[in-house]
Amino acid sequence: MKRKKKDYDKELAEEFNHLEAVSRNLHAPTAPTGEFENIMAEMERRGIVPQIRKELKDGK
Fold first, then answer.
1. Number of structural domains in the chain
2. Separation between Cα atoms, residue 43 and residue 45, nearest integer Å
3. What is the rounded CA–CA span in Å between residue 60 and residue 58?
4. Which of 21, 30, 54, 57 has CA atoms 20 to 30 A from the CA of 15?
5. Is the pLDDT score of 38 beyond 90?
6. How far is Cα 14 from Cα 19, in angstroms, rounded to an integer?
């Protein structure tokens, strides 16, 4: 049983290393100007309160 776990751990480590190497070269595109403000305005229009505001209001 230990041998299988060791092989599985090795495969996961190799996959993680591969994904880490690939992700170093990836750059997320920036959001369009004003996108965040548009989303927040739409949420306010619909009456949606963001979770963080609820938590800050409740003192959690």
1. 1
2. 5
3. 6
4. 30
5. yes
6. 9
Per the model's pLDDT, the better-predicted residue between 40 and 56 turns out to be 40
Domain span holding position 44:
2-58
**Continuous H helices in 1-60:** 2-24, 35-46, 51-58
Residue for token digits 């979770």? 51
**One-letter identity of residue 51:** Q
Question: How large is the C-alpha radius of gyration of the chain?
Answer: 22
Q: Which pLDDT band, with edges at 50, 70 and 90, does 12 fall under?
A: very high
Judge contact between 53 and 46, C-beta under 8 A.
no
Tell me the two tokens of residue 22: 């690939």
What is the residue type of 6?
Answer: K
16-33 pLDDT, tens digit each: 999 998 888 888 888 899
CB 40 within 8 A of CB 31: no
